[in-house]
């Protein structure tokens, strides 16, 4: 059997996706909730670590709780071809986002070991802590630390909304490891992920050849006004932070119409205090997520948003505090790895399309240190970050087989 005849075991991959998806399962749905560093995240990690150990892989866990499992028996000077993704989810998550990339990586390695393929260098699969950033911003925190984009000490101090820190929560769940960060630079990195959008399904295409990731800007805004009686306080005397939040939400939506192109804007979290029917709120805390493939346009969107915020808050007599939760520039993947992904998919007789990623991914961090690209599979109805997230078994299998072929080809590619 030649390496290119190899195929992953579709049933084993799906079984593992189901088993991992059962941890933190949201009753009555196929979705799950495993926010980073919760008990559910720990249980998911324990399960995947068991599978890694069962394969005899060398597992290293670093100070931010990333785990990298590498095929043993190679000269230590040979950097691995690495794949991986994340196993944390948003609180209303699906079972494919991130999980597919980790479990397909495991599946590739199991397939290669079972077939006894001789490799020039080892393969490795990792999970990276807190990719979602939903509990501890920024997103891609673990991979950011892995590549040296944030000092470990700074990452450990990040707190969630209840004041619990990354460091304390890592200790609590037993995943503050000893491996150093920045971590070992891979020979190359490739990540399989569901598209999380509608383009592939809409065009009837099986494999997205991902050329890059759009820029991401997350801001948390705290607006402080005057809480008072909803019935007695004349409108002209109010300082209502809820009204400013609503105004800003509509403004950023309007920006997307004005800018067009890939500009997107989302107010995904909005909390009013005290959040009662007959009380003008005292505070509004909101998040603004702006993204664009063009950093210049993204910067314009940020400037316009901030100046409108200042103006709207001033008009209502409301105070503002802002905090940048995440800011990542757009990333271009490596042309050589992109070509390898496209060639592997095309040689397998699969339809392909080059495309940018709208979502953030661990691969965008690895692109800072080694040749990197991504493979997308379709998402049914384009839905993700939602419990109905689903990808057809045929597409999961096709994506994992492309990952297998790409990793084998990358092992033979000299990037010097
Ligand atoms: C991370 O998944 C993001 O794109 O928000
Ligand atoms: Mn993801
Ligand atoms: Mn996600």
Q: What is the CATH superfamily of the largest domain?
A: Zn peptidases
Largest sheet: 9 strands, mixed
The tally of beta strands, per DSSP, is: 16
As residue ranges, the low-confidence spans are: none
Cofactors and ligands present? glyoxylic acid, manganese (II) ion
Q: Helix segment count?
A: 12
Q: Could you say how many structural domains there are in total?
A: 2
CATH class of the largest domain, please? Alpha Beta
What string, H for helix and E for strand, traces the elements in order?
Answer: HHEEEHEHHHEHEEEHEEEEHEEHEHEH
Structural category = alpha+beta
What average pLDDT do the residues reach? 97
Approximate strand percentage:
15-25%
Shape: globular
Helix content: 25-40%
Radius of gyration: 22 Å
The CATH topology assignment of the largest domain is Aminopeptidase
Report what the structure shows.
It is built from twelve helices and 16 strands. By secondary structure, the chain is of the alpha+beta class. It folds into two domains: 293 residues, Zn peptidases (Aminopeptidase); 114 residues, 2-Layer Sandwich (Alpha-Beta Plaits). The strands form three sheets. Strands 1, 2, 3, 4, 5, 6, 14, 15 and 16 form a nine-stranded mixed β-sheet that branches. β3, α3 and β4 form a beta-alpha-beta unit. α3 crosses α12 and α8 packs antiparallel against α9. The protein is globular and about 80 Å long. Bound molecules: glyoxylic acid and manganese (II) ion (2 copies). One manganese (II) ion binds next to loops. The site of one manganese (II) ion (MN) has 6 residues, from loops.
């Amino acid at each position: 059997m030649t390496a290119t005849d190899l195929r992953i075991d579709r049933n084993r991959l799906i079984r593992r996706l189901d088993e991992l998806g059962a941890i933190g399962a949201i009753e009555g749905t196929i979705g799950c909730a495993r926010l980073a560093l919760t008990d559910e995240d720990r249980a998911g990690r324990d399960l995947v670590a068991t599978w890694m150990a069962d394969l005899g892989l060398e597992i290293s866990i670093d100070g931010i709780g990333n785990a990298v499992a590498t095929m043993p028996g190679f000269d230590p000077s040979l950097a691995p071809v690495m794949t991986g993704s994340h196993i944390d989810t948003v609180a209303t998550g699906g079972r494919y986002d991130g999980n597919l990339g980790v479990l397909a990586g495991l599946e590739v390695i199991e397939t290669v070991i079972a077939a006894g393929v001789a490799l020039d260098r080892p393969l490795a699969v990792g999970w990276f802590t807190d990719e979602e950033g939903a509990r501890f911003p920024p997103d891609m925190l673990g991979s950011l630390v892995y590549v040296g984009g944030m000092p470990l000490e700074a990452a450990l101090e990040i707190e969630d909304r209840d004041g619990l820190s990354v460091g304390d929560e890592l200790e609590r769940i037993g995943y503050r490891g000893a491996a150093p960060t920045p971590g070992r630079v891979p020979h190359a990195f490739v990540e399989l992920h569901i598209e999380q959008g509608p383009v592939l399904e809409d065009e009837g295409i099986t494999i997205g050849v991902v050329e890059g990731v759009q820029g991401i800007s997350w801001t948390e805004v705290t607006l402080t006004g005057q809480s008072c009686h909803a019935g007695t306080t004349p409108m002209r005397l109010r300082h209502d932070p809820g009204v400013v939040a609503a105004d800003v939400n509509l403004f950023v939506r309007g920006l997307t119409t004005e800018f067009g192109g890939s500009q997107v804007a989302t107010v995904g979290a909005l909390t009013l205090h005290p959040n009662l029917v007959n009380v003008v709120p005292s505070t509004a805390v909101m998040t603004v997520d702006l993204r664009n493939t063009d950093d210049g346009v993204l910067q314009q969107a940020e400037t316009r948003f901030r100046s409108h915020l200042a103006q709207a808050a001033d008009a209502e007599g409301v105070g503002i505090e802002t905090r940048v939760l995440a800011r990542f520039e757009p990333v271009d993947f490596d042309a050589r790895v992109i070509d390898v992904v496209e060639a592997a998919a095309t040689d397998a007789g699969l339809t392909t399309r080059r495309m940018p990623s709208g979502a953030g991914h661990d691969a965008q961090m690895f692109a800072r240190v080694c040749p990197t690209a991504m493979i997308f599979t379709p998402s049914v109805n384009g839905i993700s970050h939602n419990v109905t997230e689903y990808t057809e078994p045929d597409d999961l299998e096709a994506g994992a087989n492309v990952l297998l072929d790409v990793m084998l080809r990358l092992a033979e590619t000299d990037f010097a």
